[in-house]
Amino acid sequence: MFNHPDYDGHESVLFAHDAATGLRAIVAVHSSLLGPAFGGCRMRPYPDEAQALADVLRLARGMTCKAAICGLPYGGGKSVILGDPRTHKTPELLRAMGRVVQSLGGRYIIADDVGTTLDDLAVMRAATSYTAATTPAARQPLGVTAYGVLMAIEAAAAQVLGSHDLAGVRVAVQGLGNVGLPLCRYLHERGAALVVADMDPARTAAAETGFGARVTAPEAIYEQEVEIFAPCALGAVLDDETIPRLRCWLVCGGANNQLALARHDAMLAARGITFVPDYLANAGGVIDFYQETIDDRPEAVLASVERIRGITADVLAQAAATGETPLAVADRIVHLRLTAAAARYRMA
What percent of the chain lies above the pLDDT cut of 70? Predict the structure, then answer.
């Protein structure tokens, strides 16, 4: 475990099993230096346990980075349930997952993610008090992650394309789920020209009819001649094979862990492509959770998420001044904030 390539000093990794419900889950707490670990619960039919472990370790670290780069009082955690949500998810299994979260005593706060919903969190609350979306307003779908990606795109467009105005800007959106489709709506409202890809033809049809998007095959999305490529599906899509195929100036999307390997950041930079750190662009969810504790009105939540635009602008400006990549700058900011928190902890 400690030699796992995705282990990054995680504080704890819990493997949980409930024979009665068939629950098989992993909960990873990467860091609680800044506060309780916050992160979603992903439910997928992973091909094997090794892939589930790698996913939860990477996702938990990403949550630490999201909270730290946005200056929020949370650490990073994540959970995965091994199983197909369409056939394996039951109220009993969800309550069993709630009991797992409760056993951690508040060190981990669970939220929805791929394969889980706000309704699932409501079921878990029968067994745990440590969930997101606890207020009536917070339980309404708002598209906060997509809105945060939009803020990052506008800031990056100003730096890379010379203007935050997206009218006529060509954007390729990969994945039309809970982030990609709302992002298409936001981009369409601002006049962007969309090309989209998704495995589900109903989703691509919705983007085509609702937002005037041009539909392409999933494998062809990388080769579209656009200004912006927005990955909004699963992670690790930017690799040795796909990066040479990109025909864009900017990568900014809602997917987690978009780089297959850390070195792919430099590979994008060598091609003259600006990569906005994914954990910054998609931090809308953790900002939303924080805002729930202050003022959960939709307009207040979206106003809070708008901080992503300013943070992105600052990171890109620092990168331009130092010659570093935006990811290197963001990673350094995160490291400094965690180091300062660790020093305060030792002095307490």
Answer: 98
Interhelix angle for 180-189 vs 201-211, to 10°? 10
Angle 78-56-60 (CA atoms, 0-180°, nearest 5)?
45
Over residues 78-99, the pLDDT tens digits come to: 999 999 999 999 999 999 999 9
**pLDDT (tens digit per residue) in 263-276:** 999 999 999 999 99
Q: DSSP secondary-structure letter at 47?
A: S
From the list 197, 18, 37, the residue with the least C-alpha distance to 95 is 18
Determine the Cα angle at 28 with ends 100 and 255, to 5°: 115
Tokens read off for 79: 């959970």
Distance CA 15, CA 183 (A): 35
Kindly list the catalytic residues: 78
Angle (CA) 26-31-32 rounded to 5° is 110
Q: How far apart are CA 259 and CA 237, in angstroms?
A: 6
Q: Confirm if 103 and 12 have CB atoms less than 8 A apart.
A: no
Largest Cα separation within the chain, whole Å, is 59
Tell me the average pLDDT across 279-308.
Answer: 94
Closest to 15 measured CA to CA, from 7, 5, 23: 23
Read off the pLDDT of each residue in 275-296 and give the average, rounded to a whole number. Answer: 94
Closest CA to 173 of 213, 113, 114, 115: 213
Six token digits for residue 289: 């959770």
Q: What is the DSSP letter of 238?
A: B
Backbone angles phi, psi at 8, to 5 degrees: -135, 50
Which pair of structure tokens corresponds to residue 278?
């994914």
For residue 288, give both structure tokens. 């939303």
